[in-house]
Structures are given as structure tokens and as C-alpha cells.
Amino acid sequence: MEVKEPKRKFPLIGIISGMISVASHGLKKPITVQYPEQKPYTPERFRFRISLKLDDCVGCTLCEQVCPNGSIKMESLNRENPRNKRKIYPDVNFGTCTVCRNCEEICPTTAIYLTHEFETSRTRNSFLYSPTELTMKEEDVKK
Amino acid sequence: MNLLYRLFLILRFLGHDLGYALSYIIESIILILFVSISLIIMIYSFRKYMARVQMRIGPNRVGRFGSLQLIADALKLAGKEVIFPKERDDLPYKVAPFLVFFGLILSFAFLPYGDLAWFGNLTITYSSVSIIFIFAIIAIMPIGEVLAGISSRNKYALMGSLRAVAKDISFEIPMMLSVIAIIMMASARTPTALNFQSVVATEILPYGILEPLGLIVFFIAMVARASYSPFDMGESDSELVSGYSTEYTGMRFGIFYMGLFGSIFLGSIIVSLLYLGGFNGPYSGYVGFIWLMIKATILVIISFTVWLTMPRIRIDKLVNSGWKYLLPISFINLVLAGVLTLGFGW
Predict the structure, then answer these.
(1) Is residue A28 part of a domain?
(2) 3-class SS at B221?
(3) With A89 labelled, which of A11, A29, A108, A117 sits at a CA distance of 20 to 30 A?
(4) Total domains in the fold of chain A
């Protein structure tokens, strides 16, 4: 197939129209989000970080069984709770969690649930959260 | 009134010789400061403008709105280790960046800046042939690029400098021809038509209105002279690593970078002086300098827009556009200028 040559126009017109469109971009607002100071928009139903209510947890190990990546392990914690006789509570590794929300769905007492927080990045290579750390907010855990 | 004479009046108590010597030195320092500060403002505003065109924010960490970013960059460059290539040609390699920069600073000393209230004119020294002098100094700057390319002993640097020479030669002649057209028209009004000051001061209409072809040719030639996109043959950063400045590190590289922006500023001032009326305007006896700076700023913004809009053109197309289009256009411009001067007496 033969490629047609484009119609030759007066050479300056294309250059000037290109310059005008470049200059008009100079008046637009930047779309960059300055992340640590300026939080990005997250939808209302967005969920990421797993939290735990120690009083509600009955130690049924369903969350451990349903977790597809084995991120949740049960850990014994010496704490008086009449509903949790075996004294075992979930322990979450965020390094492998894919936020499938199966644990929240299967939990019979809604003790384990996901929150709106998403800043779980660490400088040290440890994403393990003990049951007491899961009850705290993310800022307190980092301290 | 001249700034030099103002300084001399202050330093009169030192006697004639010492007073003038000191006031020359002080005025030179003022000029270097003026050029450096304008370069810093230009580089900062270019980075901000480029960021806005690309819908980014640009420098915003150092100082308020990133205004101290350039000073931080300069400190970083000055603190870097200077690495010399092993098989360099020593003297040209070390001299080349300074040749570019001193050529730039020297040409600012001869430009007529117009008056600014009490301070007067910033021009350091006058010459009756200052137009020829300035274009001679501008012609020195490519020699620095060539020396840098040849003495680095690097194939990319050599190719970059050869391309820069090809570009400079093909745009030098149209540039000078369009200047000759202005000198022709000015010679009808003033006996010293080679003096920048008198050429600009005696015009009736800005020469850009009388010879728009010359304005276009001269502006394109100044874009090519300053060697930014679409004529950044010397640098060609996507093919030749960084062109003639490949082997340069630290502050010497920074001087090349400053030289690029300085050429844009110098080109904008010369275009606004020759074609847009320069310091002429309402109340030019008091604010002529500000008129010149306003015109130069508009031209600098247009230059930045050209830089950001266009890709680099191929080397053969570049040489073609210099010899086959700009040269005939500048000849036509020369003939039209002659017709206007002799036939209509403008």
C-alpha cells in the first residue's frame, strides 16, 4: 500500500499552534500529589489495615484457616477473657497479606476487621503485628 | 547619565585615575552580579515553567517554593569531585568552559541598557563599532565548544562539537545579513550606524515592524546560536551522551549550563534591542532599562516555549534550513530594506 504524503501547509502555522498548546499547558494546575504532606484521595469503602478487638475474639482459628497466604497465625497471649478459654489470638504478617477480607467475612464475632488506614510501610523489614499491636492505631505501633 | 560617572562622583576624593579605576571595577562587579542573578532567576523560572507544561510542580523543597534550589545545585556542583579524562589535551580542556563564559560576560559589557532613574546606564564601556564588536565576541563562544569537544578525547564529544560547528556556520551568515539590513536602514539617520546605542536611539518605528522577515530570521539564528532544542546539535543528549560537555564534571559542567542560559538571555536582549525598540518607550529617560527588560523577558518566555515545544531536527535538515531557506530570506530582507531606505526614505 502506498503511503500518501501529507499535504504541505505553510510551515510556521504548525509550529505556532504547537507553541500555543504548550504555553496553554503552562497555565494548568499540576496533577502531582505531594504525598507525605498531602494525602491521596481514597474512597470511603477503601479498607487496608487489619485491626482486632481483643474482648470479642473467641480464638476459633477460623481466620487462620481461611487466610489464603498463611498470613495469620494464632499466638497465645496471657490475657483474661472468659470467651477465649484457650487464650489464642491472631497474629498478622502484612508482608504477605493481600487484603482479601476473608478473615473479616468469616469472623463469627467481627472481632477481626479492616480499617481505612493504609500507611503500613516500614523501614525495618518486619511486617509482623502481634495481637496487642493489632488493637492499636498505626501511629502508635510505629512509636 | 552613566552609572560609571555616578560611581566616579562618589569616589571623586580618590583623584581622577584611582577614582575611575575603582568605579570601573565596581561597575564590572555590578554587571557580573546582574548577569548572574538574571541567570539564576531564568534557570529557576525555566524549571518551573517546564514543570507546569508537564503538569508537575517543579522544584519546591529548598527554600520557599524551591527558590533556593539553584544555589543548592551550584553548591552541589562545586563540591563534586573533578574528574579529568586521562588522555585529554590539558590546556584547551581546562580553558574551554571559561572561554564560553567570559565571552558571554564580555558581550554584556557593551550592550546599551537604557537609563534607570538616578542610576543611569549600566553599559560599562562604549565603542563606536559596538555592533561589530558584540557579534565578534559572540563568535568566540563556539570556539570554546569546539575546544571542549576536541580536547576531551571522546568520540561523542568530538561529534557533538562538529555538529555544533556545522550549525553555527550555517546560521551565522543569515544572522549577520539581517543585522546588515538594520545597519543599512540606520545609516540613513545616523552617521554612527555601527554603534548600538545610536542605532536604537534614532529609530522611528521598531525595526521588527519595518522588516518582519529580518526579525524571524534573526530570532531563529539566535535560537540556533544559543543551541537549545530544536537546534541542540552540540548536545544531542539522546544520541551523543551529552555532546561536547560529556567529559566535564563539577563546576566546569555548571559553567557550560550557565553559558546556555546566558546565551538565551543575551540573544533575547539583542533581539529586543535591534528589532523591538529596546529601551525606547514611554518615559524611556527614566525607565528605559525596565522597558528593555520587559521586552527581553517576553522573548525569553517565547524561547522557553520554543525549547519545550520542538524536538531536535535532523542534522541535514538543519543545514538545509540554514542555507536553503534562511539565507535567501535574509537576502530578500536586505533588498526590501534597501527599497524602504532609498525609495521611501524610512
Answers:
(1) no
(2) helix
(3) A117
(4) 1
